[in-house]
Amino acid sequence: MAIKLFIVDDHFMVIEGIHSLLQNENDIEWMGHAGNAASCLAFLHQQKPDVILMDVNLPDKSGIDLCKEVKERYPGIFIVGLSTYNQQSFIEKMMSNGASGYVIKNATQQELMEAIHTVVKGKQFLSFDAAVALRKPDTGHGMPVITRREKEVLELIADGMTNNEIAGKLFISSTTVDTHRKNLLTKFEAKNTASLIRIAAQLKII
Amino acid sequence: MAIKLFIVDDHFMVIEGIHSLLQNENDIEWMGHAGNAASCLAFLHQQKPDVILMDVNLPDKSGIDLCKEVKERYPGIFIVGLSTYNQQSFIEKMMSNGASGYVIKNATQQELMEAIHTVVKGKQFLSFDAAVALRKPDTGHGMPVITRREKEVLELIADGMTNNEIAGKLFISSTTVDTHRKNLLTKFEAKNTASLIRIAAQLKII
DNA sequence: CGGCTTATCCCTTAAAAACAGGATATTTTT
DNA sequence: AAAAATATCCTGTTTTTAAGGGATAAGCCG
Questions:
Q1: In chain B, N or C: fewer CB atoms in 10 Å?
Q2: CB < 7 A contacts with chain C (nucleic strand)
Q3: B153-176: pLDDT as tens digits
């Protein structure tokens, strides 16, 4: 029986690329694609693929969150993370949110096929680059784990808002904002706001 | 005569996607692809395409630098920037380094074809998303002209140093550092240090 | 030369942020 | 159900920054 495959990626060219790579594979049934998390969930409401190739970065929500959501609702579907970067932290998060595999976008056709065939059997698959990224000891400059609220505050700080303005916007006390700020500085090992924003910008968090 | 096309992108799937999109176009001659800047330059040593689709992010050097280099050596080749993100700073830099067009990776086949046909005539082409990104934040996305000293100070601020530390490092008074800081805030139209660093980071100045 | 830019220096004051302690309630995970 | 993480709030003190005002010397360019 052919493996039913669905793709979530907001880049038309990537979808086209994967489609092209797989069109001659007899045991893959191309079910279609979604450009964002919402239409992916809408599709899954109607139909159930065996494997989803899921981009880590989506316009409406992160693939990491979507992965968790899909796995909770449809544990039978296997998910392969797909990313431009072999960021260790992304890989780790995807896998711990229920993904069965992870493939970098410069993977070869062979790797992609191997990934699909491996995860559909319930096993895990990491593409070569992803496995290398995971193995190398954390260089310390890994992305800190920050909470949703902390990220919100971080973005508002980067927008140049003061603690009081942020407090007003989020309907919380300014002392709370200050605490989040304190925690952000600790987590990013930043000395002050300036270095915090720089580090966050370099990690593409803002 | 068919338009000779070459692609520089480190993502196999994107190359495959573009190849697939263009394989039925009779007036496009697919010359091949390079996965990094070095092999692109090596290829150009041998052959001369009419148009190059060039990813902004390459493993060995930025597409922005490569664009400049290629245009200096081969002014007759037209370059279309290619990127995952519609970052206005990227678009601006590519265009000012000699690119004739800019296309986001989620562009449609129509947009891509239009881009190639437009630039080969010597005209400019911006994909819809890129044009929107360029026009939207009209309020100060042009890169400010800063002096050497100001850039020095900016970098030290981003490193998390205080005015006094910077003063000590540069052998100047801390009030001077403060003045530079003041001027930076004015030039970047930033409200405070946080937004200053964010803007500078996004413009790749730090 | 004369005007312009740059780099340097100084003052004041109010606001903001950093820092150092703490506490409590709600989720989430185990 | 217990433990851990998260989000919320508090009271202080000290340091830093923002933003306003000005001033002088050196170098560059037409």
A1: N
A2: A 162-164, 178-179, 181-182, 185, 191-193, 196; B 145, 147-150, 167, 170, 172-173, 175-176, 178-180, 192, 194
A3: 888 888 888 888 888 888 888 888
